[in-house]
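Instructor's aside before we start: the two examples that follow are unrelated to each other. I chose them only because their records fit on one page, so don't look for a connection. First example below.
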Amino acid sequence: MSIAKKEYKRITIKSLVEMKKRGEKISMLTAYDFTMAKIVDKSGIDVVLVGDSASNVMAGHETTVPITLDQMIYHATSVVRAITRALVVVDLPFGSYQSDPKGALKSAIRIMKESGGHAVKMEGGKEIKESIKRILNAGIPVMGHLGLTPQSIYKFGTYTVRAKEEEEANKLKEDALLLEKIGCFAIVLEKVPAKLAQEVAESLTIPIIGIGAGGGVDGQVLVTHDMLGMTHEFNPRFLRRYLDMDNEMNLAFKRYIDDVKSSDFPNESEQY
């Protein structure tokens, strides 16, 4: 059953809660630069995530661990300049909040002041509770992230589905309730069983955004470069490719090369 969409001039945290109450799904994509962010925002997306996945997509690292706070601020600043409608959420990168609550607050303040982002996202539950509370007390909105948390990849050792066993599933549910209780405005659930994700979404009043978490949650997020087919090394079950940009761009580049080599470009109308 389709749900009537409400038109928003600007998406806020309140807008997302209203969407959940109405049963309208929340759309979320990543962006790391001005040009892509402008296109994504113009499409009518609800949330733009300046993800630490920039470490993989933009810098070519194997994991999200190497990206720094300064680099995240650079990407976020570029994105914010392009946005007129979407809510911009910025990942706090690995090492910028895990050590102590005071350090976490300093990192979050830098992102908000220097980039103009609207909220931050943090991976983890009970173990980072004090850092989240410190940031929330400063008036900075926080989106949680549970399930597969890529910043902890060396702890997990694999990108396989999380919370399949009862003990880990129970911890995830407890952490989700905790994040809602202390004031997070939404939670990303990554790569967890669909049944569990739906149970969490139905038990909380805040929106649950899924990536590899089934259709029973309140919204979905994908990495833009993945869903556009600009990357082909990453092929999880949950990824739907809406374009094959790798191939389309390759063809365009080859046409350009051929035109330059043959002196077809520039022609008379393309010069002064």
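Example two begins here.
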Amino acid sequence: MNDFREITPGGRPFTRMYLNVMLWFVGRAVQAAARQDLEVKREFEALPHRFTFALTAAPDGPSMVVGKDETGRVKYLGRRPGDYPLHVRLTLKSMEALFLLFTFRESTATATARDRLYVEGGLPEACAVVRILDIVQVYLLPKPVAKLAIKRYPRWRLKRHTWDRAMVNLRAVIGY
């Protein structure tokens, strides 16, 4: 029986790298959308003062942290949720579940229904975070891909689909 060696799964470096880049960009896009989009602004205004949330993959996968500062402005705070007091933590069961979410093969609603998404914190705040993430995905993705990533594609005016989308993407790239 000692002739068999133990096989451990690989670290999946390319998956981890892809998810880190996606979470970085989505975090910055949330910050940009909070400045550009009125609906995202309203969602954040309804959240408590100095509200902070994280989206992570269990047990030690990639993550992003977004929060409001003391002036109420939304900021992408980085990749370490342990550095901040969190009001809401959205945790996906594994890195593979997060990969399904960010390769847009599964929506947030489907991930929740399939028991891949865990929420720590208040349910109303978690629902607001999911609504914000859905709006940001509509801004970042082309329509055929966004329809896969969210539950229901919104009917927006032309300005919101063109100008606001361009501004959110530009602000996400430059970090403003």
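The chain has one domain: 13-174.
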